[in-house]
Design a protein that fits this description.
The structure is a single chain. The chain is α/β, with parallel strands linked by helices. The protein contains 17 helices and 16 strands. The strands form three sheets. The protein has an eight-stranded mixed sheet with strand order 4-3-2-1-5-6-7-8, sandwiched between helices. A six-stranded parallel sheet has the order 13-12-9-14-15-16, with helices on both faces. 47% of the residues are buried.
């Protein structure tokens, strides 16, 4: 807590000087409130520190099934930007011709990119060469550690070309005990930020451990150096008996394909309650309400994060902590990176998971208070983003 209080004594910038451009994918994935918050935490967090922010996204007609400008994708992005007072701080591009279909026109986007301190390109979502070239500093932000590094080593894709700096939330990347290849790059590690003023502690106690989960996600498993690094589905099956064996309530806002009906039946047969994330967490406010109504989170990671000892921690779990909801986290090499034991508890096996469930339920008030304290110390956007800017020499 001492480090946190030191940072809070540093006055935040209020002069409006400096521009941070953030490239991401809110419009590409509409009605996914948790995914939207990944980018909002950076936009609202940098704005809190006095920076002018600009969000860049793109669409094509194949995604929208018709004209882009009036699609549900574009309308979703507009609504999010208006909701958070960012209506003058975004640009949505038509990928086919590079012109803006919503928000700032392309020439204004280029001008702001030229005058920016940096362009933070999440997973290289932005590949518009002119806009990237306009920015004086291009920073690759890795939120799926292991995948882009291994893709590059295997010659499948190189997302790093054209960037000047490389940041990852895999906090063990570059250490001897992490098997993610660095590719000869100097990786800056960071934590997922949470803008605490938007995530107040909840005093009431929810009924169920929950999570908002994509069963497979957009990536395929990766074969690298004789080992298969898989997805969340491959890890979740190890803990499928948890509700039945613990006697506690567990619920998932689960995005699962119809082809995975056997897995759905397996979950439900073991006592999991499944709800539709398109209803429960379809926008930032509903996602936040879903987290707030929970008892805590069960954080099951992709096997890529677990098997590489990446030090990955979920942006979603950080939101649970901020809300005063304890997090039961599958271990990705978290020991020594975060305070473990109260508010944030780790497990490797189902027996471990059963033990931490009972620990939380046995002294919930203590764990809830510790959860919020961890968020304030470790994930406060003021702290995380100031440290990131300092690491980039852009503070």
């Amino acid at each position: 807590m001492e480090k946190s209080s030191i940072f809070r004594r540093i006055p935040v910038r209020r002069d409006g000087a400096g521009i941070v451009v953030l490239a991401g994918s809110i419009a590409q994935r509409p009605a996914r409130g948790g995914h939207t918050w990944v980018f909002l935490q950076y936009l609202l967090g940098f704005r809190r520190l006095g920076w002018k922010v600009l969000f860049v996204d793109w669409l094509d007609e194949a995604m929208c099934g018709g004209p882009i400008g009036q699609s549900k994708h574009a309308n979703y992005l507009r609504s999010v930007m208006v909701r958070f007072g960012l209506e003058d701080s975004f640009s949505l591009l038509d990928r086919a011709n590079g012109q803006a279909v919503a928000g700032l026109p392309r020439h204004e986007l280029l001008g702001q990119a030229q005058n920016s301190a940096l362009l933070l390109n999440v997973m290289a979502y932005l590949d518009d060469e002119e806009i990237l070239a306009a920015a004086p500093r291009r920073v690759f932000l890795d939120i799926d550690p292991g995948f882009p590094q291994m893709w590059r080593e295997l010659g499948l894709a190189d997302l790093f070309t054209g960037h000047d700096d490389f940041v990852t939330i895999g906090r063990r990347v570059g250490r001897e005990d992490c098997s993610i290849p660095t590719g000869g790059l100097d990786w800056i590690t960071t934590r997922p930020p949470v803008v605490l003023e938007h995530w107040p502690r909840q005093e009431s106690r929810g009924a169920s451990f929950t999570s908002v989960v994509t069963w497979r996600g957009p990536f395929d498993p990766v074969e690298y150096e004789g080992k298969t690094y898989g997805l969340r589905v491959h890890e979740f099956r190890k803990f499928v008996e948890l509700p039945r064996r613990s006697g506690r309530q567990f619920e998932l806002a689960l995005d699962i394909d119809a082809d995975d009906e056997r897995d759905r039946a397996l979950l439900e047969g073991n006592g999991w309650r499944l709800v539709d994330p398109a209803v429960a967490a379809s926008d930032p406010d509903r996602y936040q309400a879903y987290v707030a109504a929970s008892l805590g989170e069960l954080m099951v990671a992709k096997s890529m994060y677990v098997d590489t000892r990446s030090g990955w921690f979920s942006d979603r779990a950080a939101c649970y902590l901020a809300s005063g909801r304890p997090v039961l986290a599958q271990d990705t090499g978290l020991e020594g990176l975060y305070p473990i034991g109260e508010g944030l508890l780790t497990f490797r096996t189902i027996d471990d998971a059963l033990a931490v469930v009972e620990s939380v339920c046995g002294n919930y008030a203590r764990h809830a208070s510790a959860a919020r304290a961890i968020a304030e110390e470790q994930f406060d956007s003021d702290i995380v983003l100031m440290e990131l800017l300092a690491s980039l020499g852009a503070a």
